[in-house]
Structure formats: structure tokens, C-alpha cells
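Replying to the earlier thread about multi-chain prediction with a worked example.

Input:
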Amino acid sequence: MREAKVIYSVRTCVPLPPSREPLPLNFANSQALFRRAAEVIPGGIYGHTTPAATLPGATPYYAVEGFGCRYRDLDGNTFIDFLCGYGPMLLGYHHPEVEDAATAARARGAAFNHPTPLMVELAEALVARIDFADWAVFAKNGADLTSWTVMVAREYTGRPKILKIRGAYHGTHAWCTLGHGGLIPEDRAHIHDFPFNDVAALETLFALHRGRIAGLILTPFHHPAFADSELPSPAFVAACNRLCREHGTLQILDDVRCGFRLSTGGSHSVYGYTPDLSIYCKAIANGHPLSAAVGRAALKPAASRVFLTGSYWNDPAPMAAALATLAVIERDNIPARLAALGERFVTGFLALGEKHGVPLRASGPPAMPYVRVADDPSFIRTQQLCAAAVAEGVFLHPHHNWFISAAHTEADIDEALQRLDTAFLNLSLSS
Amino acid sequence: MREAKVIYSVRTCVPLPPSREPLPLNFANSQALFRRAAEVIPGGIYGHTTPAATLPGATPYYAVEGFGCRYRDLDGNTFIDFLCGYGPMLLGYHHPEVEDAATAARARGAAFNHPTPLMVELAEALVARIDFADWAVFAKNGADLTSWTVMVAREYTGRPKILKIRGAYHGTHAWCTLGHGGLIPEDRAHIHDFPFNDVAALETLFALHRGRIAGLILTPFHHPAFADSELPSPAFVAACNRLCREHGTLQILDDVRCGFRLSTGGSHSVYGYTPDLSIYCKAIANGHPLSAAVGRAALKPAASRVFLTGSYWNDPAPMAAALATLAVIERDNIPARLAALGERFVTGFLALGEKHGVPLRASGPPAMPYVRVADDPSFIRTQQLCAAAVAEGVFLHPHHNWFISAAHTEADIDEALQRLDTAFLNLSLSS
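Result:
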């Protein structure tokens, strides 16, 4: 495959796989390996990538390689990817500048007894880019730091309670998981949730727990699974800012999924939030394992009192990858590019729905769009549409927002739309 | 530096740095960067690698590269490393077989929408190696999985309570952190601790909370900071096994620090524990970020009901690194090699103490030894001894157990002892 014709720009100088696979797609290898996996792994595949969350039988279960905006599965099928690893893949699989930086760092060693200078450089880079940030810390998972910022808020305020958006995902720790297994009542004794954009519900919680609320944790917009995305209303953002200020409650922005896709300097500025703490992950190092939290100067002493560490957290390679990723984001104004590409994709997608008589509903910002069949409460028709798209080599998730990457070109978007045109032709929706 | 004479075996075919630095060591660059870091990072360096935990002023604060069993700091000082990144560095920095495997995997992409086949291969490799294991799951940090196994124990038993060894480290999550910041009482409402090796205390807890204890979480031996390591007494191990069996309590072995250093198949077999769940991390992928939990078949349904996932957990490179690491561990019987090297080091170290009239006390298994000045309750003399060792280019931690790596040769151990001989000569201990 490495001998395939190189048609990418220097930005993504890796070979493209063949642009068309014969239909029908075959998932026999994926399915056979999944059966083997089920012997030695609970559920075969667990977590957000479980086939049960997409379309069992109609999607690949195992990936083997990715180039730019495309990936290949275990059966040799290739897909234009609109899920992007659920977010980490911002600049494309195997982005040369990022990989070169990570490889050079890795070649000098990993997981030392001390940090490397890259940790300081990266903290400085985040403080320089994120307007409210005075300091940064690093970990491996988003949840490492959503949980830690909750503890920092409790340490700073001396209060126990945390308000969160109902159904918002902040990781799989007991205080916030969307799963049901293994919980005890004490895990959420001081966690209170409210519907997104519901100013009255938020005001009620602040009144009810006056003087007891350490933090309000938010996502920039609401991106639940099995539902449309919702952008925040200006009134909701204003209420969040005002109530936090009035009650001495810290505003924590979980920017894990959106960070650096909507803005070069954190997503709070897009919608007008005034966070005290923000968490980044996913896109920050284009797939290398790293998360970061940033905060205001006033919180630095409290932050230094909440013990935070992990075995691999000094590993320089992901930090080198993050520095390279942040440089590309800024140099190429990646968020603007994603917005334009996403706009082109969503507009074209909606036009195809109209052409084929399938009413569609789009939600979310164009860089992280989600399109589903309108009037489809069970998601069955949306699943059928996504299965038809996958069969044409376009990977779409029926229940989770999508992601545009900077490795998608206008030509890739147009090719995807052309394939979707065929998908609509092949589609027979349940009535 | 890359042109330095290559004197390593094929197992560690990387160049050694010069074997001797002029004294006194200079940490000016480390200290200047630390001051810069303190502007943008709470505490400058946080977590277990904070200079405050070792010897401020007498040790490096920043590493820049590692080869085999040695690393170089930001001031150009090199050290024979007996901390090994606090555990991940099992086969030496930049081990060629591990790095080649990881690089090959990384070149095919990372953080896909699906796992890669490596996940299945790795689960099968663990199940094949660990006698009681019927299944495996993977994450990034040890704490991801100590916390998850606690939830699995609660899910399986329907009980809330967890017993743990007093002072044992299982991560920085609120239920188990050894820090004090940001905690609320509910975090530990059902966590009860007991002194290591104290059978009576353990029996009392089991009697007091009869029918309410989901799990007993253990480390193979007790390796607290600021204390000697303690090996488990046969009576303690027997009591753990018997009480768990009698009370239907799951035995969880936190093998994060010890795993694959004491045995090729998990440390439970070394001491006779009968775990239901074990967690591995650190050494499993020679520094690539990966953790794993394994469990018995009966727990598989409960395990599949406790949601577990993370943004980078499908990343194939660390799984490829783990497969390569496990293969080397088995092929070269690494635990036996570490035990022999550790024995040589500790025996030589104690002899030096005798020679120089400094009574020493060694504890822990030879592969993970800890040697301190005897009768030193404040650790001041142990700190002076470690500072003298560091000044001679031997990195020792005054308050944390040490690690031998497979990249240490007998010659490296002997060189370290020779340097320690000089360190003892230069040592003037507080009275």
C-alpha cells in the first residue's frame, strides 16, 4: 500500500488508499476477530467504540491503518472518516509534522524520573493561547482532569457540590459516568444536574444549594449521544457566568471534545463563557495521549494542593506532538478551515436529503456536525442512512456527533457527498 | 552523542553516554527552568516527580534523554538510573525491540474509531500468561483500572465497602489518593483501611462489615513512601485468601508497580495470593502508556456492565509495545535477571555501609530494593546518602523503593557500587 500514488499536499504527505472499494463491503474478518475477542475481553469491545453503539453487522469492528482523512478496516475496506477517532484526529492520521515531533522526542526516551523541558514549553504555549489561562497541568485522559478540576473547585471553595448538565459526558469516573454499573449513592451525593440551556433550572439549583456549590461544569455546547446537539443560548451563557460570579462558584469548562476545533484558543470564547478552569484532550496532540487543564492564577495554590500524577505523565512524545499540533492549528487557522469544510459537508448533505425526499435535521457547529433523519425518535432510519453511507465508504455514526478534520479537502468532502448520493439511492427507510 | 561508542548488547543496542562527569554536578539549568515552570505550572512540577519528594538542590529536575539504564539531565549530567521512571522502564530506555514494534504500529495510525487487532492479541497474551486470568481490559493509567475494578467488585457483589492497606498507593482518585486536597467525606464513606500484615485488624474489619464488603484491594508487598518496604507474611496472605473466600469478597491485586518485575505471570504467584482481579501498568509496555486489568470468568458479565473507556485507549502503539515487552520478559526471564542483579546491588551496597561504618537497612524484594541508613527516623541521613550518590552519578531516591532494569548489566551494577564507594567517602552524615 505504501507504493500508492502520493497525492496529498505536504501538510498530509501520506499515500491515499484506492478511492473505491467493490460493493458490498465485507466485514467477515472484523466479525471473526470480534468472536475471538469476546472470549478474552468483556463484551468483546467495550466503551465508546463498542459495535453495539454503532451498527452491528453494518460497520467494521477493527481498524488497521489510517492515512489523512481515511482509514482501512480489517477486511480491507476503506472509509472517508467523519468520526475521526471520536475526536483526536484533528489534522489527519499520521500527520507528518506531528509524527516527526513525537518520534524525535520518543527517540530520546520516555517516562523519566523527571519531566522534560517540553512540559514547560507546552504549559507556556497554552497560557499564551488561552486568554484566561495562567497555568496548565497535564495528564493522559480527559477524565483525569475533569475529576481533578472538581477536586480543585472543592479545595478552593471548601464546598462539596458540583452542578452538571444532565446527560453531559465528562468521563467514566463514578461521579460522572453515563453508565449504570458499579455505582453507590455516595458517588453522587453532591452532584446535581440540570437540563442544558435551562436557565430557570440552573437558578433553582443555585438557590437551593446556596453557599454549597463548588463548581459548575459545562461543555461548550451540548453533544449528547442519541440526541441532537444543542448550541448554548446567549441567555444560558450569561446566566452561567452571572450565577458563578454571584455565588463564588468556579466555572469549569470541559473542552475535551470541542477544544481547538472551534477556536485556536479554547471554545469558551466562541460562546462567551468565562471559565475558571478548562480541560482539553482529544485534538490537543492529534491522537497522542495527552490531556491538559488550565486555570486562573487565583486557583494556583489550591491546584497545587490537589495531588495529581500518573505513571506516564512526563512522557515527552505526546507533549512534543501537542506543541506541533498547536503550532499547525494556529499557523493554518484550523478551526476556520474545519468550519468551512463542515459547512460544505452539511449543506451538501441536506441538499441530498431534499433531492431524495428524505427530510434531515442538522445540529451542532459545522466543524462537529450531526445530521440525522428528521422525525426518527427510535433512530432506526438514521441507522439505516448511516449503514448505507458506510456501505459506500463514508463512515458516519448514527448516534454521536461527527468530526471534520483538517486532512479532509474540499475534494474529499465532495467525494463523500457523491458517495452519499449513491447511499441515498440504495436506501430503503423503515416506514 | 549518537556517535558515542556502542558497547551494549543487541538487547540494548543504543549508545552509552560518557561514563564519568566532572564533580561537582551542576543543576543550574534544571533550577532555572524550574523557576520558569513555576510561573505557568502549579508547584512548578507536580505529582510524584516533584523535586520536593527527592532532594531539592541536590538532584536534577528535568531529564532530556535516556539510553539503556542511564539518563541525562538538562545540565548534561548522566546517571545510572535506579528509579527507572518510578517503574515503567523495565528493559531500558529506548529498548530496540519495543520501540520498533511501537513505531511500526504508530506508523499505521492511532486513536481510530475502532480497536485494532492488537487489542485482541494482547488480551490473549495476558490470559495465556496469568494463571487465573480469563479476560483483560486496557486503559492508560493504573488508577483508571484500580478505580474500575472497585466498581466491578461493587457491581458483582452489590455491596459498597472496600478494604485497603493503610498508606498503600492506588492512584490519585478521591477514594484512594494519598493527598489531602479536594476531598469530601463521601469519597471514602465505604473505604476502610488496615495496617499491612495485620491479620487481626483485617479480621476485625471483615467481622464489623460482614456482608457489606465488595472488595479487598492489596499490593503484592507493601511499598509505602517514607518507610521500609514490607513483604507479606504467609499468615497475612492466607488470611486475605481465606477471608475473601469466606465472605464472598473479591480480592483485587494492584500489581501496577510490581507486575512483571517479580514474575513473568503476575506477582500474586510469588506470595500466594488468589486474586479475582489484578491491575498491571508501568512495566507492561516499557514506558508506553498502557494499563491492563485481568479477571476471572465469573466476573466477566459484571465487568461488561461497568462502563470503561477513554479517548486514546484503542491506540495500537502501546499495545504493540506491550506485546514486545511481554515477549522479551518471557524469552529472557527478566524477573530472574532483575532478582540476580538486585541481589548483587543490595549485597554490595550493604557491604559498602559496613566498610564505611554506616549501618544500613535493606528492604523489599531484590528486584525492587530500598536501602536506607538505619536508625534514621527523619530520613535526613538517608537523604544525605542519596545526595552523595547522585553527586557520583548514581540516581537513588531517599523515600521511595528503587527499581532494577534489565538494561543494567553486572558491569553497570559494579560501576554503581564503585561510585557509591566514593559517595560514602564524601559523605558526612548528620549526627
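The longest strand of chain A covers residues 213-218.

Feel free to reuse this layout for your own posts.
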